[in-house]
Amino acid sequence: METVSVLTKILRFGIENEYFKLKLIKDLDKSCCKQNTNEVIDFDKTKEKIEKEFKVNFASCDALLINSKDEKIDFIEMKSFKNLIKYNSNKEKFFFQKKIENFKFTDKIIDSLQILSLIAKNKNLDLERKKIHLYNQVEKNFIVLIDINLKNNPLEVFTIGLNYLANNSNLKENLINCTKQELSEKKYLNQSENLLSPQLMDCETFKEYCQ
Q1: What sign for the dihedral angle of Cα 48, 54, 60, 62?
Q2: Do 6 and 13 contact (CB within 8 A), yes or no?
Q3: What is the mean pLDDT of the chain?
């Protein structure tokens, strides 16, 4: 119950002091899941406020979900793989490997952890040392959310275009595999912040995850 109380206090403090702006996922500027009505924190807005306050530049994930009930925090980065495929269907696998690397997932999760930590340790929040320790030990997840189905889905063909299936049958699979390989690197693990292994999810999987 103590952990639930700590997370609830951080969430309330963030909202009351305008660090946290709540939005539906579908309404986020960078949303790749336009049908998703789960409420999250627009973490780009959080980053902007922290940057002004501390006069420093950060990278950040797109959204944040503080789940007090389940005692976990989800950092969410969204990528439109449909557009990536649509406009680069003639590229080789190496192109997509470099593209994935240029997403700078590592920078975004490291900076996002730091941004949220600055809020949790804000002197006006006044969390005692024991409760800061509880915050540090909360399960933290880095979720890369994409708009192509991770399983074969015949209906998706009509969304992306018939030429996609005819000419690029392996492109989707290659892109997913490149992302999974990038996210499998141990550089993402952070024991002091209890950051777990990153997860790749599609919109439907994430919807189920949030239930």
Answers
A1: negative
A2: no
A3: 87
Q: Structurally, how many domains does the chain consist of?
A: 1
Read off the DSSP letter of residue 28.
S
Strand ranges inside the chain, DSSP E: 22-24, 39-42, 63-67, 72-79, 139-146, 199-202
Separation between Cα atoms, residue 40 and residue 7, nearest integer Å: 14
Q: Are 95 and 152 a contacting pair, CB within 8 Å?
A: no
Token duo for residue 32? 């790749």
- State phi, psi for 182 to the nearest 5 degrees: -60, -45
- Whole-number Å distance between alpha carbons of 195 and 140: 5
Residue of 85 and 118 predicted with greater confidence:
118
The domain in which residue 174 lies consists of 2-209
The beta strand positions in 129-208, using DSSP E, are 139-146, 199-202
Show the tokens assigned to 3: 């952990």
Answer with the residue of higher pLDDT: 154 or 6. Answer: 6
